[in-house]
Each structure stands twice: as structure tokens, then as C-alpha cells.
Amino acid sequence: MILLKATALALPILSALAASSKTLFTQQATDYSAQQYDEGLFTPFESLSLLSETEFTNIQHPVFPHYNVRIKKSHFCDPTVNSYTGYIDIEARHLFFYFFESRSNPDKDDVILWTNGGPGCSSSIGLFMELGPCRALNGNGTTFHPESWNSNANIFFIDQPIGVGFSYADYGEAVSTSEDAAKDVAAFVSIFFENFGQFKGRAFHMAGESYGGRYIPLFASAVYDQNAKLIEAGLTPINLKSAMIGNGMTDSHKMILSYYDMQCSPASVAPIVDISTCVVMKATLQRCEKWMRESCKEQFDAISCGAATTFCSSVYNAPYHATGRNPYDISQPCEGGIETLCYPVTKHIGNYLDKPSVRKLLGVDPSLTANFSQCSPDVHNAFTATLDMHHLATDYVSALLDRGVRVLIYVGAYDWICNWVGNERWTLALEWSGQSAFIGQPLREWTVEGKPAGKTRSAKGFTFATIYEAGHMVPYNKPKESLELVQRWLAEKEL
């Protein structure tokens, strides 16, 4: 979910110092040993089945001395599988997560880590509204979700960065860049796999939605790069197989320009903005493309990049918002206001997670007494202040592909904010070893149970796919099609 406010993508003009640090591993929070650690100092927990239901078990690893994981059994949501909740503690920072075993074969099935976007939105949206094993879309608690992605996979849902959902910090610390967020997620992944040997070597996939288009390429790259450190320390590397991005904001510049197409051409629905306004927007396209490219990509200048994206975003956003349509589903009006993300059912998720009995069951830290918030304005503003969105994630995608990590880009055809036009454009423009093969593939229709489900293009481990009549949250609108999409992807079958 890309978090929208009155100023949405209108970014402040900042000093160049605000975004000066872009190197992922300039200073590791973890102290990797140059030599293999003494295995006698570490005893893995081994089995999730040994965890307590009434209190947290603490797990650590000597290679990650500043990290601790608290985890417990938390039977809820899906009575057919084991479920767990806990915190990733990075000294004074604490990230909350949910984990559900596969309904099929938890001892052999792949592992998926899922994050929602924002930046600043909780993955409870993915869990309780989209792809999780249960949904909380009415006032009666949770209901079993038959098309959950844990049908054939073990899956994490993580509230990150700190300040999102049930995640918190002790002394007001904050994370404001995807690079910093990536380090914490990569360390957690290694600690988990090292402690629970049943998952060692298991195929691992990192997935996310919306701002996940920026998160996931960096998170997957951090896990991949960290593997060299793990091998050096005598540990088992993470078997990173793929990255999956749904309706992602991976190239914000192409996405901003695509807003013209979505409202002034029949890209998904008939044009919805008057001709005179569209003419004005069209006249700025070349100027905005050049300005953003020169100031945000070729040589990042925070002041000029902030000015370019502020101007261009306002030109294309304002006419759309004036229509009153849902920015996450161009075919629908915005219901309930943007505070409900235009989906009033999200209120039920918050009400469920505000119940004292539910918080106790999940092990939510008692210090969190405020009502649950789906999205954090503070986190969103912190990422906005560093212009994080405008450090494009496309080069990370190409690097992953060139290292044999498969990448899936799927997009609901009715989404506006992270639409299929912008996503297709950056996938075609992506420079990597398989670019010519990918461009050479025409879009073709893919089907589910003999019925058209969308269009797709694929080559050498890179797949782009649309899902007909789905908005920003594909699994919510099209649960059957989204599950089929993921099952084929995990099985390495073509759509």
C-alpha cells in the first residue's frame, strides 16, 4: 500500500545531506567474524514445535550479536496449521512478525516473507485482508481464508520498519531509508534459519506490495550479499530463490508519468478526466521525464529532485483525486475516505487487533496502548524526508536477475497508484543480461480454469503479469487467481 495523504507524492525540497548515504553495508549493525565462529558457543533451538504458547522464547546467534528474536506459539487465525508471533529485537528497536506454517507440507514447502508498503503500513493488511490464512473483514473476528498463500508455503508477515503496526522503539529511534530497513530484515532471516534447522536450505522467497517495489529488491539484495558473510562464518547460506512484487513502486519516475495514461487514455478504463486537463498534463510529460531523470537518477540532487517530483506529482495527481475515485482501484469510488485506504472494511482489522485478548494472545508488548493504526504518518514522513522513493530500485532488480534470482512483477489492471502501465515500462527498459530476450516476448494471455486471468511476458527468470479486474491489492480482489499465480511461480511453471 502506497500511503496517501493530502500531499501524497508532493515531496519537500531538502538539503543534499538528507539523502547522502546510499550504501547498503557501509556500517553493519552486526559484527561478522572473519573466522568461523566456535560452534560450541551456539546451540540452535531446532524445532518450532518446542516453543511455548504462554511466553516468548529468545533465540540469538553469535554472528549477529546485536540481534535477538522473541517467538511464541499463538494459535489463532488458521486452526489447520501452527502459527507463531514475536519480535525481532535490534537493541532498542523491535519489529513484530507473524509466521504460519504451510497447510500442505510444512517440512518441505518453500518459505515466503511478506511485507506491505506505505512506506509505513502494517502487514496486517496483507494478513487479514489479502493473502493470509484468515480475514478480519467484519465485526465477528476472523474467518478462514481458503485461498491463502500458506496453502503451499510457510509464510511470514512482518511489520517494518519500526513504528509500523506493533513494531516499536524504546527511545524514539526511527528508520527512514530502505537501506537501513534491509539490514534488519536480512539479519532476522539468518537468525531464524540458523535456529530452526528444519528450514535450512529451504527455498526462500521475498514478497511485497506497493512500496514493497522499493523494499523487496533491496531486502533480497541484502540477503544475497549477506550469504557471503554467512559462508565465511561457516554458516548455511539462505537459499534465496525469488523476489515477488505486487503493484510495486519500483521506478517512481515512470510511475508518475504513467498517471497521465491511466486517466487520459483507455489503458484500463475509459478516460476519466476532461480533454482540456489532459492536454495540459500531456504538455508536461517530456519536461518532467527529463527533469526527473537528470536530477534524480543521472546525478542525484536532493534539491532539484525534490522540486521535480513535487511539481510533476502535483500536475498528475490533482486531476485524479478531484474525480473522487479510489486511487487503489480506478473502477471504484473512494469509500470511507483515505483514512480507511478507501476500503471501510479495514476498520474491522484495527478493531480486531485492539482487543486486549487478541493482543495478549499475540504477545504484543504491553507498552503499546494506543489504538492500532494501519499506517504510520510518522514513518511515511521520515521516508519522504529522505526522498527514499526516488532512489530507484531497478538496478537492484537487474543485479538479482543476473545472479540467478528470479523476479515476478504482478499488477492488478485497475490499480492507479502503482499501475500496470508504469510497471510494464520499467520492466521493458530494465538493463540486464536477459533484456533482449524479455523485450522479444509479446504479451500473451494467461488463464485460470480456462478463463482469461490477465496478460504476461516472461524470459530468463523475469516475469511481468497483469490480473484483470484487480486493484492495488490483488489477493483481495482476485484470491483464486493470485493463489494460482503464486503456486505456479513457486513450482517454476509458466503462467
Automatic annotation (TrEMBL):
The keyword Ion transport does not apply. Belongs to the peptidase S10 family. Residues 1-18 form the signal peptide. It is an enzyme of class 3 (hydrolase). InterPro entries: AB_hydrolase_fold, Peptidase_S10, Ser_caboxypep_ser_AS. GO terms for cellular component: fungal-type vacuole. One of its GO terms (molecular function) is serine-type carboxypeptidase activity. Pfam families: Peptidase_S10 (PF00450). Its EC number is 3.4.16.-. PANTHER family: SERINE CARBOXYPEPTIDASE CTSA-4.1 (PTHR11802:SF113), SERINE PROTEASE FAMILY S10 SERINE CARBOXYPEPTIDASE (PTHR11802). Keywords: Carboxypeptidase, Glycoprotein, Hydrolase, Protease, Signal. One of its GO terms (biological process) is proteolysis. This is Carboxypeptidase. It comes from the Eukaryota.
